[in-house]
Amino acid sequence: MSDQQTIHVGGEWRAAATGATREILDPADATTLAVVAEGGAEDTDAAIAAARTAFDQGAWPRTPVAERAALLRRVADLLQRDRETIGLLESRDAGKTLEEGRVDVDCVTDAFRYFADLVMNESGGRVVDAGSPDIHSVVVHEPVGVCALITPWNYPLLQASWKIAPALAAGNTFVIKPSEITPLTTVALIRLLAEAGLPAGVANLVTGPGDPVGARMSEHPDVDLVSFTGGLLSGTKVMRAAADSVKKVALELGGKNPNVVFADACATDEGFDTAVDQALNAAFIHSGQVCSAGSRLIVEESLRDRFVAELARRAERIRIGRGTDKGVECGPLVSAQQLARTEEYVASALAEGAVLRAGGERPTGPAYGDGYFYRPTVLDRCHRGMRVVREEVFGPVLTVETFRTEDEAVALANDTEYGLAGGVWSADPGRARRVAGRLRHGTVWINDFHPYLPQAEWGGFGKSGIGRELGPAGLAEYRESKHVYQNLAPRPVRWFAG
Fold first, then answer.
1. Structure confidence at residue 2 (pLDDT)
2. CB 465 within 8 A of CB 417
3. pLDDT reported for residue 286
4. Could you report the per-residue pLDDT of 343-353, keeping only the tens digit for each?
5. pLDDT at 195
6. Residue 497 has what pLDDT?
7. Phi and psi angles of residue 381, each rounded to the nearest 5 degrees, phi first
């Protein structure tokens, strides 16, 4: 297989039907990292047809659960075998640090093992009491069919696994379209699926842009479900495209996530240090290119000056550079477009009255060259009227707002059209749980930020999307429920006189 044969249809690797290609750039220096096929509508139709045939006529949907689970575990083992290679590829493609790339591979491994265990531990269906010994009634779960999986550029491998693992566990076939910016580890994952013994046609891949590839996947009548992770605008287009064929839709559309810090959390030196450290992690992991990034710091007013001063001091000391270099803590943004977007948001914030405490510019020096680097940025004196506070930046930009009362903190944290995640910091367990209970966000961390568990559902309220990934609900997205009602002693009803 050549580098340009990155389209996988019916078990075969191929180039794009048009012969078109795309250069994948290393965000650390803007040089060419790889050349991949630039698929189009013809490639997409072929991939969907292969998935349709594999579902309707192939063995995978009817493969015993134990065999499906065993394959998922083999994939997990292969991921660990290739951990260093795939972690490095993820680091170079997405710009994240090498350690982040390795952690991503471990998280993907956990997801495959979790869904393997989940389906193995299920019963044969839910028995429904019909009120008669002559009736056997059970609700069973079947695969939904052909799944169109569309993933984002920030966590290409992780987001692919969150969709592929439950789709396969449930017995579906699929076509996946990774971001055209960061497709390389998804290509690697499809290779591992084939090595693990997945039948041809079950897993199909089209590398290419959202239009036409993603659009065609969303509207195609032979697709039964579309699962999309990405931006709000693109997500609404996916939902509209899916409407005509009334297919199932699952959307994860990002967030504008609050990190609420009460003064009592910082009453001790250790508490203060921990809260500041975690605020940095919340905002600047992967250069802020995280859907759940704690990009809105909402801090109690009495604590603000001290907290922001220390936060800014530490932000200025974050080591920026190529993700594979030793000691680097923050890599580049993924693309020139994302760098320009970040710069525009910071400029608009300053024009609207924000006070720059740290960052706010590209780093200078020969080490940064043509890379898409931007210094971690802290913007103080922010308010909800600012675009940078309302809209998802997806860059290393942290805004600071203040509150005086618990009610005001909750009101600020919930004053967003999104609702993906949020954090609460307090030394008072009752207050922490009370505030967490009032936040309208799909995940709420108390005295922590960012960890997730494959066995716990992930998704958001409001415009953060619909549906859930991970956990039992994440598996349910890829299933249809069927009620089977069996009369063991049939007899005439005599409804009609005859």
1. 56
2. no
3. 97
4. 999 999 999 99
5. 98
6. 83
7. 60, 40
- Segments in the chain below pLDDT 50: 1
Q: Which own/partner pairs from 276-280 qualify as long-range (CB within 8 Å, at least 24 positions apart)? A: 276/307, 276/310, 276/311, 276/314, 277/314, 278/423, 278/425, 278/448, 278/449, 279/307, 279/311, 279/398, 279/449, 280/311, 280/314, 280/315, 280/318, 280/376
Residue 123 is predicted with a pLDDT of: 83
Q: Quick check: 348 and 402 in contact, CB under 8 A? A: no
Amino acid at site 277 = D
Angle made by CA atoms 450, 454, 460, in degrees to the nearest 5: 60
Cβ contacts of 275 within 8 Å, gap of 6 or more: 261, 265, 266, 307, 425
300 is catalytic: no
- Cβ pair 8, 190 in contact under 8 A: yes
Prediction pTM value = 0.96
Amino acid identity for residue 134 in this structure: D
Task: Out of 90, 100, 252, 392, pick the active-site residue.
Answer: 252
